[in-house]
């Protein structure tokens, strides 16, 4: 056996080891990584389009992945395909990493001969989903920064500044303001008794968690959809989903079945089930979308015109681009509204501190000078 055969044999052995080690550890719940899904589907689509066999494409894509768990899963899929399984069957062995929507759409693509189209569509879907989620997270960074800064400032004032003010008041024989005295006594109590401090922090944490859960139970997702930006986000996700489905040319109802169990939002999951049920019962796509209550009048008008004209794919693509732009505008608008609010909160917090602790000191100093 020559050196090349030896290297090939050892390489296959490595793949078998990684595959079986993943299978043993697959009981551990892994979080779906949309960035990896976008990279895998996009790379497979491009390589497959170039005429390279799917087994070689999987091999090439696996080598480019940074995520060890996804790299090993592709080697596992490759081994299953070599044993006679299809691409979708291979992915279905790793359901913790690949959602049912991903697997189901690929299965339809294989059966209809449109594997490239569905892989490309999946890549676009996950790329867009990642982009919008990042925009929302970026919009929340500044408010969270201000909020955390206020908490840290409060801790600093209680532990460092107020005790120093107490010493100043004490040295001047001036009675400490009532509010300052209460906070100072609490600060001393916490410093002297770490057990009490820990118990208090733990208790308040539990109380806040319970209150947050109670509040979340009372505020249903249907109530949240009354907020413009939340409604726009859900509408965009749904339009993007239909844009991908129609662009691949696969059966809409069949594709929606796979979407039902793969949506992270229960609200959208229920809406997809409702839309699919209406389509199966014989209603048009526009009528089904209208009954769901997710889509705006503008979106429904575009879908109706495009559906009647037989250009539904282009309609959803246009809608996806338009709604993406509008959603970004709303995110920026809300950000511009939120920033001044948090700045005012920070300024009010500092002003309150000056009013309670600093101003009485100056008043007492002025009184002492007059005497």
From TrEMBL:
It comes from Clostridium diolis. Its main location: membrane. Belongs to the GSP F family. Residues 44-163, 241-360 form the Type II secretion system protein GspF domain. It is a multi-pass membrane protein. Keywords: Cell membrane, Membrane, Transmembrane, Transmembrane helix. Signal peptide: none annotated. This is MSHA biogenesis protein MshG. GO terms for cellular component: plasma membrane. The chain crosses the membrane at residues 139-158, 194-212, 233-256, 341-362. PANTHER family: GENERAL SECRETION PATHWAY PROTEIN, TYPE II SECRETION SYSTEM PROTEIN F-RELATED. It holds the Pfam family T2SSF.
């Amino acid at each position: 056996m020559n050196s090349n055969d030896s290297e090939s044999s050892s390489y296959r052995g490595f793949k078998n080891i990684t595959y079986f080690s993943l299978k043993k550890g697959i009981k551990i719940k892994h979080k779906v990584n949309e960035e990896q899904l976008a990279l895998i589907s996009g790379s497979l689509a491009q390589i497959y389009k170039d005429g390279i066999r799917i087994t070689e494409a999987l091999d090439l894509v696996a080598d480019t992945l940074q995520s060890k768990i996804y790299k090993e899963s592709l080697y596992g899929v490759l081994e299953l395909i070599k044993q006679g399984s299809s691409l979708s069957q291979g992915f279905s062995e790793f359901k913790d990493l690949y959602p049912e929507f991903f697997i189901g759409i690929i299965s339809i693509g294989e059966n209809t001969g449109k594997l490239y189209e569905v892989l490309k569509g999946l890549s676009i879907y996950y790329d867009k989903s990642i982009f919008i989620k990042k925009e929302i997270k970026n919009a929340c960074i500044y408010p969270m920064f201000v909020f955390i800064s206020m908490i840290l400032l409060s801790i600093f004032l209680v532990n460092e500044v107020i005790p120093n003010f107490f010493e100043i008041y004490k040295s001047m024989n001036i009675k400490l303001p009532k509010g300052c005295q209460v906070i100072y006594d609490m600060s001393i109590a916490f410093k002297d008794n770490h057990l009490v401090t820990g118990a208090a922090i733990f208790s308040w944490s539990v109380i806040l968690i319970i209150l947050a859960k109670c509040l979340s139970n009372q505020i249903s997702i249907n109530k949240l959809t009354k907020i413009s930006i939340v409604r726009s986000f859900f509408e965009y996700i749904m339009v993007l989903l239909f844009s991908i489905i129609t662009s691949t040319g696969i059966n809409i109802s069949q594709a929606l079945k796979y979407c039902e169990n793969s949506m992270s939002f229960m609200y959208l999951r229920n809406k997809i089930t409702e839309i699919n049920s209406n389509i199966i019962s014989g209603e048009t796509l526009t009528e089904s979308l209208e009954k769901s209550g997710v889509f705006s009048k503008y979106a429904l008008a575009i879908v109706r015109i495009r559906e009647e004209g037989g250009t539904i794919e282009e309609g959803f693509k246009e809608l996806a681009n338009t709604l993406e732009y509008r959603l970004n505008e709303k995110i920026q608008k809300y950000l511009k509204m939120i920033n001044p609010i948090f700045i005012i909160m920070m300024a009010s917090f500092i002003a309150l501190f000056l009013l309670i602790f600093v101003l009485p000191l100056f008043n007492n100093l002025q009184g002492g000078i007059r005497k």
